[in-house]
Amino acid sequence: MEKMIAVGIVWGATNAIMRRGALLWDEALKSSAKPNPHSTLCQKMRISLGNWVKLLSIWQYSIPFLINLSASATFFAILSDAPLSLAVPVTNATTFAATAVFGILLGERTHLPRAFFDKTIQHYSVHRESTRMDESPRT
């Protein structure tokens, strides 16, 4: 369970940081030339690829993105040893809460009461499911 929570915290932290990097990318795109609406499919694909490369060149996005991908690999390794019905809700609930907390730490506006209410419901559901699984006979 600790590994699931750790993955959720890493995902949540990197989500909030990547959002900040994506905002920098969005500002860079707005300041660049507007694409021609009558461009060919090949030109549109080249522009999209260039935009993606520009996004990855922003370290505030690319470094958290790589850390996030590493956590994803860890999550898949966890799935080999943990029941899916426990791993997914625990990790998702932790990710959601960590994203809210790190967003607040980065100065984002968050609807805190609703976030805590949603997390309380999710944690209750996860606890109920894990208790039920502990009580069920193993084969």
TrEMBL record:
Organism: Glycine max
Keyword field: Membrane, Transmembrane, Transmembrane helix
InterPro entries: TMEM234
Name of the encoding gene: LOC100800512
GO cellular component assignments: membrane
Membrane-related topology note: Multi-pass membrane protein
Top-rank taxon, per record: Eukaryota
Protein name: Transmembrane protein 234 homolog
Transmembrane segments: 55-78, 84-106
Record's subcellular location: Membrane
Pfam families hit by this protein: TMEM234
